[in-house]
Protein 1
Amino acid sequence: MTTTTIIPPTGARRSSICSISSTERAVDNDPHCPLCNPGDTLVLANEHCLYLQEPHAVLVGSGIIVPRKHRPSAFDLTPAEWAATYDLLQEVRAKLLRESQPEGFNLGWNIGSTAGQEIDHAQLHVIPRYADEPYAGKGIRHWLKQPENKRPG
Ligand SMILES: [Zn+2]
């Protein structure tokens, strides 16, 4: 059983995107990366990972699990970071079930800008879903499967 520690905010704010290039692999910390310096978005943590949440008017309760170290994508996580992601995900699930009783979840990694990754630091999106949402019943692949998303040729 992993013990989760709630760490007080440091006061740093998300203010920029990472400046590290994708050819530079995992480094311990990027001073310009908002996910290396999460500030008051930090909600839960364990040895290798953090759970971050920002207030969101639509995706209420959603957040991201990120490695503490600056890893460009999920493919760069160490086995220990994968295990810590799993452990923290279980705790996040319990917290969300306790606080808002979602009927489902979407979990997802966006890897690369083509796939929608906006910050060059691995992040597992945890999105609680509710039966009374207008998009209830639509999953992660829904938008990608639309005919207008077909590649040319
Ligand atoms: Zn980072």
Protein 2
Amino acid sequence: MKKTLIVIFFMILFSFATLADLEEGLVVYLNFDQGKVDTVKDMSNSGNNGVVKGNPKWVPGPRAELGSAVEFDGVESYIEVADNDSLDFGEDDVTMMLWIKQDVDQVDYPRPISKMPLFGTDKPGFDVITVGLKQPALRIFYGMSGNTRQEVDGGQLIADGEWHHLVAMKDEEEGKIYIDGNLVGSAPFTPLDISNDYPLIIGANAEPAAHVMFKGVVDEVAVYNRALTEDEILTAMDGKVILAVEPGNKAATLWAEIKR
Ligand SMILES: [Ca+2]
Ligand SMILES: [Ca+2]
């Protein structure tokens, strides 16, 4: 019995350590689990709450334990996180991770997540994930200025009506895309200053005057000011980025057992 308890103790310790790692460098975490609200609470320590625009719907997430997700209509709905220093990455690394479900009826270049304006502007930023029907492969646009940009092609249609876990990142001098935990695309990136004064937008590109709307469902949006390791990506995909320890849950019950 004692041995079992010791094993359980270390299992809990290990799981906390893993979760703690996934909080390092986390600057945005919108899990949409509050249900329908006017302001989505950021679960990271950065206070990057998202203001709801239009009339998105709250729907079930990819798995029961991931709670609710948010569905954008592709017309007027999006969520806006105001620009601030925690979202200015300069030449440093950046990771965007989210669950996404979209059907094939997309316009061109919809952005499920973006901190970059459309073409023809002179303010670099990042559109970490770009998907569309005419441009079916998931792509990262990095540091776009005018029509000049660096990009990674994910080479895979994800607008298939199924949930997919996406990670887009700049990792030192490389851009990388992971779909469902697999590295599907990479390309050399020359680091450049991507700090700008645009908001971070979920459900459209970041230029209010020229929104290209995203139609589909999004859940568990996380943004990091660093690159994630493959292990971290798989851990996040299998669970939640931050799992709140609440009374009555499994971990708390195990602690109670050990204390007895
Ligand atoms: Ca959720
Ligand atoms: Ca800024």
Protein 3
Amino acid sequence: MTRYILIASGKGGTGKTSCSINLAAAFTYFNKDVILVDANIYNPNLSINLGIINPIKNMQEVLLGKYHILEAIHNHSSRMRIVPLSISSSYITKMDLSNFKRVLYGIDGLADFVFIDGTSGNNIDTIHLINAVNEIIIITNPDTASLTDAMKTIRLANYYKKPVRGIILNKTTPNDFYTSQDVENLMKTEVLGSIELNHLIPMANHYKDSILNLYPLDRSSLGFKKIASDLLNEYFEFKVENKGFFSRFVKLK
Ligand SMILES: Nc1ncnc2c1ncn2[C@@H]1O[C@H](COP(=O)(O)OP(=O)(O)OP(=O)(O)O)[C@@H](O)[C@H]1O
Ligand SMILES: [Mg+2]
């Protein structure tokens, strides 16, 4: 049975796309079949971050009824499959997500998990996405604005009775005002793990792959694997062999 997971945040730029890619890579590491669907119709980044340049068969065309979603599945070298959006601005005024749920279920049974890289904002598009999935993972940063917007997304999920599986606290630093425990208390939601501010994450985007594939022993890669292992009830030991400079700055929960 396919499980549909929305990666949401409220605020823009918190790391939804980066975490979608790396979490999908971590699930793939645990031998799960994953399809990543780009649903950020206003600022789609998934395709450029995975090297799919201007796909003709894309999610906009699927939403507009020109193709079936099966025709828009692209393979990535990392074994993940992607349904990309085109980056063309010509689609913006033609798009909405009112039929997202209906077209999405065209891939039912084709993967163990479908991750949906969501839009930012707590608006009607996010509501359509919430209503299309089984559960939600929130990506937020340890600052007041991100947490406030994430809280609103959690409230929307509660209102539509969709379970929030947990929070990934992304871009953490040693000087954060909010600890993982603070975030759990404030949001009344489990923090699945923390991923530090790490220049290798934009670097992996630049090289069109996940940090897990490019830097498998990096602490963030291990962090994503640990989060995936907990979500999948798989055994994984977070162990850094070579304690480098950055390792002192990173905490996992
Ligand atoms: N842990 C991290 N450390 C450093 N940079 C990061 C981290 N996570 C994401 N980034 C960078 O932050 C920027 C925004 O990330 P990303 O595009 O994943 O966010 P988003 O929530 O999908 O944004 P949008 O709301 O525009 O869709 C990117 O340049 C990305 O490489
Ligand atoms: Mg994004």
Protein 4
Amino acid sequence: MRKTKTPRQKIRVNNRWLLKRLIVFGAANTYGLKMTDEEYELLKSSIKPRKKKTDRQKQIVRMDDMCSEIIRLRALSRVSGCEYCGKPKTIKQLQCSHFIGRGNFHTRWDLDNLGGIDSHCHMDLDENPEIHEAWMAKHIGSKSLDNLVTRSRSTDKVDLDKIEAFLKESLERWRLEG
Ligand SMILES: [Zn+2]
């Protein structure tokens, strides 16, 4: 059953992936990659067309982007950097971390649920839920944390339009202040 692969085949697999990406981005010719027309056509035909995003999916991406910018601007105004370790960071070095995961739409764009932190701390907190929870209790206060958890358990329908309007307005305010 066990197939032994030679390193050459391994590289070939990686190349295939890379070649496909280069074809998708129209860069295969630019880089003058060595392949026959036949190989090119074969690779091209094996690339699955990307599924078009629905309007709802597009809206969610827009909301995530706005939310992330708000949270990072907020972190800069609060501590000029990472809200967890306090180290100075630029907006590009900050990420938007979720305490209750993104899968929960009741709290995905809830500003209490989010922190502007650097990639290192982001990974640490995601890997250590207990530490994350203890930090959240300190960061937003245990009462707010309790309320956040309650909101996450809501059974109400999530009104994306309403949340998006709120995010838009908040972002405009944060950009003016920044
Ligand atoms: Zn940090």
